[in-house]
Amino acid sequence: MDHDGGSSLHTRSKAAPDWTVEESLILVNEVTAIEADCRDTLSSFQKWKIIVQNCNALGVNRNLNHCRRKWDSLLSDYKKIKQSGSKKASFNSELFKGIERYVREFECGGYDTEADTDTDTDAPPAFVLQSGILRLGIMAQPCIRAV
Fold first, then answer.
1. Can you tell me whether residue 134 is helix, strand or coil?
2. Whole-structure pTM value
3. How far apart are CA 69 and CA 63, in angstroms?
4. Residue 138, exposed/middle/buried by CB under 10 A (0-12, 13-18, 19+)?
5. Alpha-carbon dihedral sign for residues 89, 91, 95, 99
6. For each successive 10 residues of the chain (147 residues), what is the average pLDDT?
């Protein structure tokens, strides 16, 4: 049988390569940052579009489905490790800490809103440009929608 051209069969060699620890860390950091900046102002789809754009800008060339599946997998692995009480040797400690920070801040109701009560004149600007990515410097500010 000839599988040239329009074949829908995929082999592992044609699939996206495995995620590196660095790519996973970028994903975790972007998910955490966008959730902090846009928590209740954007839909889940809109947040994921921004996360993927930011990851792409940082060299993680994955699509929305790849990023969501990886995030779901990382979060699931993290929760299994927490439930068992033992840290899996193959789970990077920096990655584990990043996911733990996300879970503590957003899944456990620990979202820090004290930043909006700060009246210090040396407060960071409302918007910070990091590596070509626009991020809110103060979490209490409303999220700017991507155009």
1. strand
2. 0.66
3. 10
4. middle
5. negative
6. 52 75 96 92 95 97 97 93 75 90 80 38 37 41 40
| CA gap 59, 65 in Å, rounded | 17
- Residue 47 gets the label, from left (phi > 0), alpha (psi -120 to 50) or beta, of alpha
CA distance 28 to 67: 10
Q: How far apart are CA 27 and CA 65, in angstroms?
A: 13
Count the residues in the chain: 147
- Residue 76 tokens, joined: 């699931």
User: Cα 11 from chain centroid?
Assistant: 27
What whole-number distance in Å separates Cα of residue 102 and Cα of residue 33? 9
Q: Find out whether 23 and 62 touch, Cβ atoms under 8 Å.
A: yes
